[in-house]
Amino acid sequence: MKILGANQEGEFAPIYHVSKAIRQQTLVDLIKKAFARFGEQLEENLPLSLMEKYRLLSRKEAMYAMHFPKDLNEYHQAKRRIVFEEFFLFQMKIQGLKKEEKSEKHGIIIHYDVERVKKFTKNLPFTLTNAQKRVTNEICRDFLQPRHMQRLLQGDVGSGKTVVAAIALYAVVTAGFQGALMVPTEILAQQHLASLNQLFDPLEIHTALLTSSTKPKEREKIIEQLQNGEIDILVGTHALIQEGVDFSNLGLVITDEQHRFGVSQRQILREKGFQPDVLFMTATPIPRTLAITTYGEMDVSIIDEMPAGRLPVETRWIKHGQLSGALKNAQLELQKGSQMYVICPLIEESEMLDVQNAVELYEQLKEFFEPEYTVGLLHGKMKNEEKEAVMQAFNENEFQVLVSTTVIEVGVDVPNATTMLIIDADRFGLAQLHQLRGRVGRGQEASTCILVANPQNELGKERMKIMTETNNGFVVSQKDLELRGPGEVFGSKQSGLPEFVAADIVADANVLEVAKDEAQQLWQKENWQLLPEYAGLLSYLKENAQENQFFD
């Protein structure tokens, strides 16, 4: 419902989305009758102290004024009240869950071997950044607490989250526990296993890989070794937390790029094994307001520093008419022995979108580059074995040019790739473009990302400009949030993203912050549930608790 001005009587009129089966005025009349008959039953769910502190209308007044305000000011006051209410009630649930998880009856104490962990860190082939040291200390402090660790580790592409994960996994192994690392794709699982094995090479750490394509006999062997404690660290996809995969003594579960997990899904993960500590990692920098709403029940660590010597990726925006010139420049790079990605948004032709098909582009680029350079193709409709074979071949420089859809977006690491072309770049979100861009610049050579796009409006042009002006993922994601909204950034059907009726986490960011602080302060009060002032709030939260067991 929106207030769009005055009706024929000169009053502010509500505008509703209606179907052909019901007229606007009919709905208005029905709502008026509902208020007349049941309006007195609208109970207050905010404590009086908060209403007085922020000069909020009562719930009954606000509800009525949202539909039938006397003037524009009353409508704004009503909306202000409803926005605060939505954020505050949501934060009460989230902060309650956080308090419950921090209680001593949850979790395990992991008495890791400090000296062994220090020695492992000292022997790494590179020096940790101050940010990596800080977040590693935060994680290790959590291990020594009797409460269950729930921590989100944020770090931009290439900031060095994997080595922090390796240190954390090694620490739990020194304490006699097992660790698990769960990632979204088999390609990424194999890559992580190879990275860990390289870091653990001189040490007696037994690792294994479990995915949906693991052969039955091998799977049986892995499960047996897990149960008898022979395997220290298991790397895999969702297959590793399925029923029947049981650990002997699981102490830590790390999930990589699982920002699509909602609160309830994260609870399922926490219940695996004997309440293991959980570390969620993401290379998608999440704006503060989005983090508060989607990860409010978790502690957050941020790696906000890049490793020394890492060169920023130069990003350029060109029009489609300039593509042939860009390909000729790319040839010069290939002559130096490097490799390149060419990314396109769709696998098949779409009648709705005039975008180049991956297969068609592959054929065109074969004509352009071969026989001097070999061109490969990677897309989501390939079988897992095919995708892995293509990525392995690209990693070993059997292909110099890889045409791919966004399958390569997350985590794939080919240091020799120094050029990326993104076709129809305006079809992607900013955060996704930033993730894609992070696939180059993984080695020692200067790298370039070329956005090929003919945006049709000012918003599209603005997005291309943002990508050329900053390499900071947090800046990019905040701009993405402002330009597209939270539903588009995380996906409109995102289970991890709460749906608000009146509140907007971008436009009402300041209210969200206030609501979070107030909810935190209330949960810190002793026995607030017993005070008469909070009876309405408690009653409302119990009725709407659903999965939140702390209101049972």
What's this entry about, in short?
With 552 residues, this protein is α/β, with parallel strands linked by helices. The protein has 20 helices and 15 strands. Among the domains are: 114-144 and 160-282, Rossmann fold; 314-470, P-loop containing nucleotide triphosphate hydrolases (Rossmann fold, 3-Layer(aba) Sandwich), CATH 3.40.50.
Describe, in plain words, how this protein is organized in 3D.
The chain is an alpha/beta fold. Among the domains are: 114-144 and 160-282, P-loop containing nucleotide triphosphate hydrolases (Rossmann fold); 314-470, Rossmann fold. Helix content is 43%, strand content 14%. It is built from 20 helices and 15 strands. Strands 5-6-4-7-8-3-9 form a seven-stranded parallel beta sheet, with helices on both faces. A six-stranded parallel beta sheet has the order 10-15-14-11-13-12, sandwiched between helices. Helix 9 links the parallel strand 5 and strand 6 (233-236). Helix 3 (59-67) crosses helix 4 (72-101), helix 5 (114-122) runs antiparallel to helix 7 (161-174) and helix 6 (130-143) packs parallel to helix 7. It starts with a strand and ends in a 9-residue tail after the last helix. Mean pLDDT is 84; it is low at 1-6, 491-495 and 547-552.
Keywords:
3'-5' DNA helicase activity; globular; Rossmann fold; ATP-binding; seven-stranded parallel β-sheet; single chain; alpha/beta; hydrolase; DNA recombination; 552 residues; 14% strand; RecG/Mfd; six-stranded parallel β-sheet; 15 strands; disordered C terminus
